[in-house]
Amino acid sequence: MAIVKRSNNGGLMNYSTLLSDMFDPDKFFTNDLLADNFMPAVNVSETDKNYEIELAAPGYKKEDFKVDVSNGILNISAETKMEKEEKGKDYTRREFAASSFSRGFSLPENAKQEDINAKYENGILKLSVDKKKIEAPKKAEIKVA
User: Fold this and answer.
1) pLDDT, tens digit, for every residue of 37-61?
2) Domain at 41-131, CATH from 3.40.605.10, 2.60.40.790, 3.50.50.60, 1.10.10.10
3) Were both Cys, which of 14, 93, 100, 118 would link to 79 (CB 3.0–4.6 Å)?
4) Whole-angstrom Cα distance, residue 40 to residue 77?
């Protein structure tokens, strides 16, 4: 069984809003056209010993991430905030920015939920989920009395 991606909105993107925003001249030329729908790209691979997850999230610090496992779901989320203030003789300019995302993955039965390693470098969060051996049920013969 493989790791299954989960989405908070059921995997549905609001295409009507996206299309109306694309044809709105005030929003078309802005950089935040897709900002409300930011979801980092993910690569999931499997080896004999573990599952490897790579999540592209540039601009974050390792302290911004929260990774936990609950009821067989691996949850990865991050939140960052930026505040910048510039004061001049006759003005004060303040800028605020915030960014966040949340992703969930259903872990397979053979994943060791207690043995997950995470490392963030060069804008990529790398997680390694070790596998455990699942033994086949033993066959037992039952005599009928």
Assistant:
1) 678 899 999 999 999 999 999 889 9
2) 2.60.40.790
3) 100
4) 10
